[in-house]
């Protein structure tokens, strides 16, 4: 039944976007006759002329705000928690942006908070983000992701993306990336990730994990940089996650500890790789409030895939804008990755905040071959704007070894 309500929530989000109602949910369009659909999701009916005693009584509808007024209302007044009042608390923003990889472009973000049970004041709200962009360099991307809390016992984290990216390319190993001249390729990717976890004790969760993806190079300047690997791969990973989580709110924690160990196997028969591939990921995050509006956040991340991993599964420095921000995505690639970062987050005034971080990490072929040369310094600062209650639109300016990048994204880096 909760799965059905989850589907209804997604449908209402689509309807809300199409009708351009970012501040007023479907249930508050016009406070008149109400019909109930599927356990408390309310949709209001419009007032129509009423015939009475051979005459017509006309009831005037309230004047609707135009789309620009609605946009600015949700932009400057949309950070209050209204998930107990509405089926969906929705906001959107369109903005120009720049990134080192993509050049100048136009991006749009839709973010939503909702509760499957609006009477439950203990469980944190579910969240959803939709992102789309197009750039002058020829990049286009669509992604959707979020965390859906079915109840206090279970939740699912999901992320899906499709993109076409013209990128610079140096190779698929750290040693190659260090010495090769810059080449180019155009990378197309479709990827789905999902992690369902069930609470087995107070804060300990366990559940299945899935990763499916197709990666294709539509153009490559120097195919020898692939070291004999294919230009396209279909890969399916199945496995499990063990999670300890005390965070107060997943997209923007103010306090808590998060430890996640994930093990995936990509069987040969479920893809186009020439062997079975194993991937182990460990994430440790800690969040400590310091003073009013100040939070110290710490992130430790490691990924291990073993030898001769297909290049789409290899670790990439700077990819995703979460770790080693400042490095060009794919500037350094290899089988494994380890990095740590510490970030100070400070709310400055109302919905505006600043962050500063320092990190250290890198990619490497194997633990036996790991040296100090593989590890690099990363640091930077950023601006935060609270677009939705506790959900930030972020702009980060990152620096690294001969590297600088601007990162636009939704939610905190970790």
Let me know the largest β-sheet.
16 strands, antiparallel
The helix/strand class is: mainly beta
* DSSP summary: helix tally: 3
Query: Could you tell me the radius of gyration in angstroms?
Result: 23 Å
Number of strands: 22
Note the overall shape: globular
Give the strand content: over 45%
Helix proportion: under 10%
Distance between the termini: 32 Å
Strand order of the largest sheet: 5-6-7-8-9-10-11-12-13-14-15-18-19-20-21-22
Outline of the structure:
Helices cover 8% and strands 53% of the residues. The protein has 414 residues and is mainly β. Strands 5-6-7-8-9-10-11-12-13-14-15-18-19-20-21-22 form a 16-stranded antiparallel β-sheet. A two-stranded antiparallel sheet has the order 1-2.
Structure description:
This protein has helices spanning 2-19, 67-77, 174-179, and strands at residues 34-37, 41-44, 50-52, 55-57, 89-99, 103-114, 126-135, 140-149, 154-169, 183-199, 204-220, 232-245, 256-266, 277-291, 294-304, 315-316, 333-334, 336-349, 352-364, 376-388, 391-400, 403-410. It is mainly beta and 414 residues long. The longest helix has 18 residues, at 2-19. The chain is globular, with a radius of gyration of 23 Å. The two termini are 32 Å apart.
